[in-house]
Structure formats: structure tokens, C-alpha cells
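quick one, 279 residues, struct below
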Amino acid sequence: MNTVAGAPDAGTLRAFGVGDQRLERLAGGRGLTWRAGDVVLRPHDGATVTDWRAGVLAELAHTSTFRTPRPVRTVEGPWRAGARRDGPWRAGAWEAWEWLPGRADETRVADVIRVGNAFHRAIAHLDRPAFLAPSTPRPEDPWGRADRMAWGAARLPDDPTLDRLAAAFRPVRAPSQLVHGDLLGNVLFADAAVPAVPAVIDWPPSWRPAGFGVAVAAVDAVCWHGVPVAQLGALGADVAEWDQLLVRALAFRIATLHLLGAWDAAADARHRPVVDALA
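---
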């Protein structure tokens, strides 16, 4: 993702056809996401990833279980209210998406997994994009590095907890496909007074077994949102190789905290019950 300081400027807002809308910072998105009318703006992830993802989600069929926001094109030519959006998917450092009402609820992990499974089924037919090929250089962000570590493509940080998890690694035979790597806080549930299909947002694409995406959500829910450790097994009762995917998911999250400089005694205390249960 681009490192962008501050809000999108007036030129960016005009480019996406929302130059006359009030700008509002949204919760989540690491403080980098903004709403202008019916459009959400966020720093894009580079031309290759952003344009590929926008092309996929512009056409992806929704179901009765999930939907996704549609990407928003820029306005070709001089901006004016109501101008047709038929330009590129990016303006400067920014991309834009349809705003969908709703709120994340990290305690509803079973519902997040149900929605995530439906999303993964809907994208299971898609080929691996070139930017996720093993031979393609990728940005060295902590999440990407930690993902490779959890799957044996890079060395894990030196830490006794990670050593325990690595000793529990076993081969995973489930096929890989495109997955959403950060589901728990990125499924929006509508207000009960205005029913709507849950929305999957902010998709960071990765190429792993589909069950890995929901395993990360399960680990996050237990470590950070008070879901009991005893529920881990039931959450993935229908997911092949669930125990091994949980071990990999936990290693991924702990390695990420190390790379962010955020692994401390408090983080260890949050993760230790899950490590003890799995390793």
C-alpha cells in the first residue's frame, strides 16, 4: 500500500466525481480511509494489484451470503456534478470504492467464517495472478513477509513460541487458490433495522488454501476478541486440515507482530493459550 499522509486532496476528489461532497475519515483502515458521499477512498496498493482487484470485483457475482463494494472509476475529462465515471481505477495515490453501510463485529467469528467461505467459493475459479507468482518480487511489507514465513518460504523470527509452532508444522495438501487474508475486521454486518447481505471489504489477495483465510479470522477472534479457545475446533469443523491451518495462521500473526516491533509480554499472554492448545 502507498504511504499517504493526510486526506485525499481536492484534485483526487474531483477525479472520482465527488468534488462537491464532505470528506469524513472512517474508522479502521489504519486511519487512511475516507468517505465522500457514496464513495470510499483509500491509498492504493500499486497499479498492478489495484487494477487487477478492481477488474475482478467489478464483475464478481454476489450471492445471498456475501456482497462486495464495487470499485469506482475516475471521471474522464473536466469534472462536473453527475459526470460519468469511465476513467482509470486510480487517481494519484488513491483508489475508490462504493460505500456500503455496516459495521464489523469481530465477536461474530462464526458468521465471518460463513461469509468468508462463500466469498472464497465465488473466487475459487480465478487463476493465480502473475503478481502472486513465487518468482515475482513483492513489496517487503510485514504481512507479506510473515505469510511467507508461515509457509516455509522464509525463516521465522527467533522466538521460542514460534519454534514451538514450527515444530508442529506438517505438510498441507489442500489446494491453494485466491483468498482474503484479513477477514475478521473486514466483513460488514448491516444494522438489524435495515437488513442487508454482509459485505466483504479491503481484500488483500494471497494464494493459499481457502481454509487459511478463515483460520486467520478464527485465531484473531480468540487472541484479541474474547472468543473462547474451546470454540476453535467447531469454527472449522467443515474445513479440511483445520488444525494445521490454525497452526500456520497463528505463526503468521505472531511473526507479523515481530516484524512490526509489537511482540511484547502482553501480546505473548494473548497468544499463549492458543499456542498451548495447538502446539
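Strands lie at 23-25, 34-36, 39-43, 90-91, 94-98, 103-104, 176-180, 187-189, 199-200, 205-209.
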